[in-house]
Specification:
GMP_synthase; ATP binding; globular; 20 strands; EC 6.3.5.2; GMP biosynthesis; binds xanthosine-5'-monophosphate; GMP Synthetase, Chain A, domain 3; alpha/beta; GMP_synth_C; Rossmann fold; 14 helices
């Protein structure tokens, strides 16, 4: 395994993912991790991440300098390289000119770390400080126009530093560099595969759970579905899957879920029809956060009642993923004041959102995995592609796509419009070109004409977006023909809608959902 010590970079997680893509297990740990902990983990190498600080800031985070005596390879990235240089006796200074964005890498020593990295290729830079004097034992590997020390090495002790970010997609041969570090310098073997993960996870689940009973709240999303398949394989009917129908799912979705689980794969699901209860909670509510709060509360109540009726259970299975447990430094720290600057945009409700004080022990077999790894695990335990590759769908469902009050009538309108959108996208064969595709119902009405009749009905917003991870997104340049057929069908088939508009806002400044 490799360890990434996180100094607050927005890319630390990405470094871990890139390493795992080489089939080597990696973990992100705080830069404060003690030397004893590191020794216990016994990694084959350490990467020091970037970070928002200058090594000369008063509050600049630093790792224990004892890591230089562990006798294992270390690579510093950006801030990590500057810290390495400072701790080993070199010098870092504010550069005359910082370097941000793409830079052309000029290679001085094409061996070891830079094997198969093209001279003149692009690497992604983002720094104000620069290394001005190398510590004893270090040599220059590469430079750029504005950065004299872009890559450095102490070959003897296997310490490496890169000022650029090999982990981001804009860096041409970044992956080649990472592979050199992982395979040739740290001597790791590509043993981290989802098949071995599944075998190990099943062994661990059985050892932990024994003959006790496990409850799982199934949503139909990829995480809880993968979890259900994995647990069912491990402990069979000691697992109970509970599906709470809040009434905010898309057309035919609850039925399809039961069909797949119950009938196709013989994983029994306890269906709880809570549609009326949730709808009652929506009466008179228009504020998006209040909607989420009420849905979250009601979910917990229904869950508690359901588990009491079906129980008792010893364990609760949760689809916690690695990004939720990363022990990272705060990434939103103001480098001058040291204060957190995070701002809450939306309080996400999802089906895993249960309180911590429930009377269950937890089983969380996915907590080491990134989302794309969960999909691969899902595939390897036989989860059908329609769930593995399903677009994300928010926990509060259609309730946050109805702007204003959620009523039965408006839910039906949106559900029908949404069905047309998905149906047309499926028929077009372009489903996987999008991150999400959906309709939003507005609380205003506009005039139209159908036949010779005046209409006065709701507009629907069409939202088709592309994205890598949902953090940023762009509106999709979908073919006009597709937009036209969606619009025509909605206006013709969905009673109560007489207009379709297309949302052409990226995120930021918009968000993907309207609420
Ligand atoms: P936004 O609207 O914040 O959405 O740009 C980013 C991603 O998160 C999903 N989303 C949610 N998921 N509970 C969820 O489980 C929520 O309350 C929630 N709100 C937004 C959204 O669909 C998109 O994929």
């Amino acid at each position: 395994m490799l360890v990434i010590l996180d100094f607050g970079s927005q890319y630390s997680e990405l470094i871990a993912r890139r390493i795992r893509e080489t089939q080597v297990y990696s973990e992100v740990l705080s830069y404060r991790t003690s030397i004893e902990q590191l020794k216990q983990l016994n990694p084959k190498g350490i990467i020091l991440s970037g970070g928002p600080n200058s090594v000369y800031d008063q509050k600049a985070p630093a790792c224990d300098p004892e890591i230089w005596n562990l006798g294992i390879p270390v690579m510093g990235v950006c801030y990590g390289m500057q810290l390495m240089v400072q701790q080993l006796g070199g010098e870092v200074d504010r550069a005359e000119r910082g370097e941000y964005g793409k830079a052309s890498l000029r290679i001085d020593d094409p061996t070891d770390l830079l094997t198969n990295v093209e001279d003149g290729g692009t690497m992604w830079m983002s720094h104000a400080d620069s290394v001005t004097r190398l510590p004893d034992g270090f040599e220059l590997l590469a430079h750029t126009e504005n950065t004299p020390c872009a890559a450095i090495a102490d070959h003897e002790r296997k310490f490496y530093g890169v000022q650029f970010h090999p982990e981001v997609v804009h860096s041409d041969d970044g992956i080649a560099l990472i592979r050199n570090f992982v395979y040739h310098i740290c001597d790791c073997e590509p043993t981290w595969t989802m098949e071995t993960f599944v075998e190990e996870a099943i062994r661990e689940i059985r050892a932990k759970v024994g003959s006790q009973r496990v409850l799982l709240a199934l949503s139909g999303g990829v995480d809880s579905s993968t979890l259900a398949f994995l647990l069912h394989r491990a402990i069979g009917d000691q697992l109970t899957c509970m599906f709470i129908d809040q009434g905010f799912m898309r057309k035919y979705e609850p039925e399809r879920l039961l069909e797949i689980f119950d009938h196709q794969f013989h994983i029994p699901v306890e269906y709880i029809d809570a549609r009326d209860r949730f709808l009652e909670k929506m009466v008179g509510v228009t504020d998006p956060e209040e909607k989420r709060r009420r849905i979250g509360h009601e979910f917990i109540r229904v869950f508690e009642e359901g588990s009491a009726n079906l129980g008792p259970f010893d364990y609760l299975a949760q689809g916690t993923l690695y990004p939720d447990v990363i022990e990272s430094a705060d990434t939103n720290v103001d480098p001058q004041t040291g204060e957190r600057v995070a701002v809450k945009i939306k309080s996400h409700h999802n089906v895993g959102g249960l309180p911590k004080d429930l009377q269950f022990k937890l089983v969380e077999p996915l907590r080491k995995l990134f989302k794309d790894e969960v999909r691969n695990v899902g595939r390897s335990v036989g989860l059908p592609d329609e769930i593995v590759r399903r677009h994300p769908f928010p926990g509060p469902g259609l309730a946050i796509r109805i702007i204003g009050e959620v009523t039965k009538e408006r839910l039906n309108i949106l559900r029908d419009a949404d069905f047309v959108v998905r149906d047309e996208i499926n028929k077009s064969g372009l489903y996987h070109d999008f991150w999400q595709v959906f309709a939003v119902l507005l609380p205003v009405r506009s005039v139209g004409v159908m036949g010779d009749q005046r209409t006065y009905a709701y507009p629907v917003v069409l939202r088709l977006v592309s994205s890598e991870d949902g953090m940023t997104a762009d509106w999709s340049r979908a073919p006009y023909d597709l937009l036209e057929s969606i619009s025509n069908r909605i206006v013709n088939e969905v009673e109560g809608v007489n207009r379709v508009v297309y949302d052409i806002t990226s995120k930021p400044p918009g968000t993907i959902e309207w609420e």
